[in-house]
Amino acid sequence: MTISDWADANRRLSSEASAEPGRWRTSRAEYQRGIMEAVSDASTETVVIMSSSQVGKTEVVNNCVGYHIDQDPAPIMVVMPTERDAETWSKDRFSPMARDTPCLRDKIANPKSRDGNNKILHKRFPGGHLTIVGANAPSGLASRPIRLLLCDEVDRYPFSAGAEGDPVNLAKKRTVTFWNRKIVLVSTPTNKGASRIEAAFEESDQRRFWVPCPACGHEQILTWGQVKWDKDENGGHRPETARYHCAECDAAWKDEARWAAISKGRWIAAAPFNGTAGFHLNEIYSPWVRLEAMAKAFLSARAGGDETMKTFVNTSLGETWMESGEAPDWQRLQGLKEDWPAGTVPGGGLILTAGADVQKDRIEVDVWAWGRGLESWLVDHVVIGGGPGEPACWQGLSDLLNRSWLHASGTPMSIAKLAIDTGYETAAVYGWARQAGFAQVAPVKGLEGFNRSSPVSGPSYVDATVGGKRLRRGARLWSVATSTFKAETYRFLRLDPPENSGLGGAGAGAFPQGFLHLPGWVDAEWLKQLTAEQLVTVKNKRGYARLEWQKLRERNEALDCRVYARAAAWILGADRWPEAHWAALADELGVLSAEAAPMMPQRPDAAARAPRQDTSREGRWVSRRRGSWL
């Protein structure tokens, strides 16, 4: 007996938990049969259900629990996003099912009895027990061995269950002792890249429900793009005329025809089966939703902006939402890498800055070259081992300041400005920066939020005497709006290179402004770190929305170093330099592009040799002779 067979024979829907109380009929939503049969299949270890709301996915979870209590007793765990959600499911979903389904009624103790076998979050039955926990409670997830694990709304789980780590992985560890374990993951998806259910679905065989057209018989996946409706003579929308159009013959299906066609559909996998069965559904398949209601919801969401549109995409279409600050695909960046000699600066790079991220056991530094229009090239990635507690580590960072990189023209270049994060071991960073000199080193502090008057502000003097007097020669701290530079970096990463572009930025003028060049030697781990965060919209307790950067993975040093190097370029004044300044830098390096030649001012030799004021906030050039400032 499969779970769907058991449900058809025994399950009773309760009036307080269903709009259609009475006997369960799997044929009411035929797509549920394939999902429940996959859970019953001994060869399937994991079942993933990524779907919209209103398709009955929670009832599938309920049927799995009821079947195993009655037919195949085992230790069962149901995981909800929070403990409050766990209590709500126990009281409003499970208890009515156990009360109204005859075969379960005698197996679950009366909740009013005093034997302790039927508590809200823990229930015993012959041969097993049911534990209901919240994903925010690490003690509940790690309490006992489990054979059947059912995780509902996994995309609403916290990033970590206390200090224990990912709650889904923590719960899965409870099943390792069972050779016949079963794991069911269910959720409406959220943001692309941060969605647990999307990641799990992509690792599955990716089954979708194909429906035959009532007119021509062509099988197809039901998509929102095929839902159409009329407009009145004034251009106003008429959602009451909404219907589904066949992708092959354009036949229009009203709701009744659509529901009849869905009852004849079948699941087809898009990837090989590897022990994980994945199912995707949207609200168009639901026998409880009319297209008129979906059309009204869509028009309302579109008028409400991104936040309401995100809700429609997630809950009605069962798809992930791409935020405006969505992290670029690191695999796409893998295909955009360019080849130029390692440790050298391509011709378009006219100045070097570096960003340093201080970690517990190391300091990571990325060296970036900058050119006209903030076009940039990753020149070097350096890891200095030892940590901030060891003098040798700081000496290695000082040596890096004195190191030079060969420009494509043959001129050696050194780091013009290094920005170092002060968030970890602040006193040690200040001490080293004071020793290295603030002309070349800029201690920085990251600030969240976009509502900053300037992406970089300062410097402020942060050293003081015992009496509290500021030291004019003390450490100078720059405040950096990291959100602004992260968004800019991701915008640059989405730029497409021109066709037949030169390697290593040789065709510098052909690339769009801000284009970010990546060398061939950079590895996948570094690319993952560069794209380790995404911009999401979150709401506070009062319901106000704000943008916030959230990690997609734990390590993000490459992104942080990029932000600090970018801040160093801003401090130097690269955002405000006129073309004449860039042309002067190119002249010092012996670089003269055909595009830049007409724009270079004609200066007499005497003027070219005269001292000149730096347009950045700090320092002067001693001489205009080649290499003196660089």
Note down, in words, how this protein is organized:
With 630 residues, the protein is an alpha/beta fold. The protein folds into two domains: 3-223 and 266-290, P-loop containing nucleotide triphosphate hydrolases (Rossmann fold, 3-Layer(aba) Sandwich); 331-523 and 554-603. Strand 5 (122-125) and strand 6 form a beta hairpin. Helix 10 packs antiparallel against helix 11 (306-315), helix 15 packs across helix 17 (557-572) and helix 16 (524-530) crosses helix 17 (557-572). The longest helix has 18 residues, at 83-100. The radius of gyration is 31 Å and the shape is elongated. This is Phage terminase large subunit family protein. Residues 276-579 form the Terminase large subunit GpA endonuclease domain. GO terms for molecular function: ATP binding; ATP hydrolysis activity; endonuclease activity. Residues 18-267 form the Phage terminase large subunit GpA ATPase domain. Residues 601-610 have a biased composition (Low complexity).
Helix share bin:
25-40%
What is the makeup of the main sheet?
10 strands, mixed
How much of the sequence is in beta strands?
A: 15-25%
CATH class of the largest domain: Alpha Beta
Rg, Cα atoms, Å: 31 Å
Structural class, judged by helices and strands?
A: alpha/beta
What is the count of DSSP helices, taking H or I runs of 4+ residues? 19
Mean pLDDT: 82
CATH H-level name of the largest domain... which superfamily? P-loop containing nucleotide triphosphate hydrolases
- Into how many domains do the coordinates divide? 2
Total beta strands: 28
Distance between the first and last residues' Cα = 78 Å
Rough outline? elongated
Protein name: Phage terminase large subunit family protein
Pfam families: GpA_ATPase, GpA_nuclease
Organism: Thalassobius vesicularis
GO molecular function: ATP binding; ATP hydrolysis activity; endonuclease activity
